[in-house]
Design brief:
Elements: H1 4-15, E1 20-29, E2 39-43, E3 48-50, H2 57-71, E4 75-80, E5 94-97, E6 105-113, E7 118-122, H3 126-137, E8 141-145, E9 159-163, H4 170-180, E10 184-187, H5 191-203, H6 208-211, E11 214-215, H7 227-244, E12 266-268, E13 275-277, E14 285-287, E15 290-292, H8 297-305, H9 307-315
Parallel strand pairs: 4-5, 7-8, 7-9, 9-10, 10-11
Antiparallel strand pairs: 1-2, 1-6, 2-3, 4-6, 12-13, 14-15
Helix pairs in contact: 3-7, 8-9
């Protein structure tokens, strides 16, 4: 997969709501199998589609891409021998030493492409319209639908649903919304009205574990407020929950807690010292009960010929 095919695949993933990272080679120093402008997509589960470089570059780019997705922040990565660059490395650039036998180097820009939040607002009240306007101002995907239009198919496990029907079919709308199992479900109502709605649905046999996930009343508790302020309180709660990672389990690949490093299965090539992924692509060798991984066939062969020499070097 090269050229436009990579961008077409990126479009497909974005439309399906799957997170991924787009890696682009912005500079190369030969000899290198990559070219400036080469692109690749890295999915949340670590699959690479496209071409970013050879065996030395790919594991590093995959690792950095997954970290980029976890943090939601793009980064510029310089891959090569640090001795090649000296003090010429710009501030803010991530330098990853690799001991590539070709002695080439790459500069790769890795950017996260994460699903935009999807908010479904059920109801036609002034508060619902205000909430929709505020949500769109944040760049969120926003659907404002009436009771006659809303079905479980309007939302999915990535969606946030706010039922703001103001007493016009609250019970039916919550029951439909629960069936979609959204990341967030809130009901705009007073405490007394919310208790009545949830009690009615419990009597109808809606599972307790599903009803317990309903935020009722929806939004941060600001006391007696206007409908505009209620909309702000609801949006504030949604922003707070997303920022804390409370809604992340609905997004594939977002298992890493925000602010914490993503833990990946990695090893150090005992021959060249390069960081490699623990996978079949690392040409594993088990020696003395320990499995070693390698960046290329040359390191794999060198270790096979004299494993004890490299193990002793690592232990030192």
């Amino acid at each position: 997969m090269t050229g436009l095919a990579v961008l077409e695949r990126a479009g497909q993933l974005a439309r399906s709501g799957q997170p991924f990272a787009l890696a682009t080679v912005v500079w190369r120093q030969g000899p290198s199998s990559s070219k400036a402008g080469s692109r690749a997509i890295i999915t949340a589960d670590g699959e690479l589609h496209g071409w970013i470089g050879g065996a030395c570059a790919e594991p590093v780019v995959i690792r950095e891409a997954r970290q980029v997705m976890a943090e939601g922040q793009a980064r510029l990565v310089l891959l090569g021998n640090p001795g090649q660059f000296g003090t010429a490395v710009p501030e803010g650039m991530t330098v990853v030493p690799i001991s590539c036998q070709s002695e080439g180097a790459l500069e790769v820009y890795i950017e996260p492409v994460l699903p935009i939040p999807h908010l479904v607002i059920v109801g036609r009240s002034p508060m619902a319209s205000t909430l929709a306007d505020l949500s769109r101002a944040l760049g969120w995907g926003t659907d404002l639908v009436g009771t006659e239009e809303f079905t479980p198919g309007c939302a999915d496990e990535r969606s946030m649903v706010v039922v703001a029907t103001q007493g016009h079919g609250d019970e039916d709308m919550i029951e439909r919304a629960v069936a979609a199992r959204p990341a967030y479900l809130g009901l705009v109502a007073s405490h007394k009205r919310a208790e009545a709605v949830l009690g009615y649905l419990a009597d109808r046999g809606v599972p307790t574990d599903q009803l317990d996930r309903v935020h009722a009343p929806a939004g941060l508790d600001l006391g007696r407020t206007s409908h505009e302020e209620i909309a702000v309180a609801i949006l504030a709660q949604l922003v707070q929950l997303r920022a804390s990672g409370a809604l992340e389990p609905a997004v594939p690949g977002a298992a890493a807690a925000r602010g914490k490093p993503l833990q990946l299965a990695e090893s150090i090539d005992p021959v060249c010292g390069m960081t490699v992924m623990d996978s079949a692509a690392g040409m594993p060798i088990t020696h003395g009960g320990v499995t070693y991984y390698f960046c290329c066939a040359g390191c794999h062969r060198a270790f096979s010929d004299n494993p004890d020499a490299y193990i002793k070097a690592v232990l030192r």
